[in-house]
Amino acid sequence: MKKITTINSGVIPLMRDNIDTDQIIPKQFLKNILKSGYGRNLFYDWRYKATSKEANPDFILNKPEYKQAQILVTGENFGCGSSREHAVWALKDYGFQVVIAGSYSDIFYMNSTKNGLLAIELPKKDRTILASIPAKEKIIVDLPRQQVRYEKYQFDFSINPLWKHKFINGLDDIAITMNYAKKIEAYEKEIPNFN
To answer: For this chain's UniProt record, which GO biological process terms are given?
Structure first.
């Protein structure tokens, strides 16, 4: 998992509530078992025209001034719906490192923490300020200090200390388990052989 400490990036405002996992990555694109290749179909039904499948120039991800943004600012209950891990994979594959929402579905939130997508909860008034930032401007997400900063604004957020440790050190569950490799090996040597 890639380490996340401080992200300095533009934001993509998508201030809609109840964006479900089928809107994030529709079911017809879930045929791959790898974690890559999903970004091109992120928000597919909004991003492309239904009749021609051409890019919808009115959708924010298709606007050139937002191409490099790594932070998505969105509404309440983000990632609701089915439990597909592919939704997080699609966001990561597109280039997002952080999502700032009012709330998340529990399963989406856990999938995010396990796949290196920092999911931050902020109240609507704070997100409204962040969503109004011009495309060329950048904000700072400072995980060690648990702050989102932009000019005179500073928004504090909460995160489970274990997840914070995992993000800052780039540790997934397997890497954390491997920290105990010597203890695991010692335990395995003590197990009687039943052959």
So the answer is: L-leucine biosynthetic process
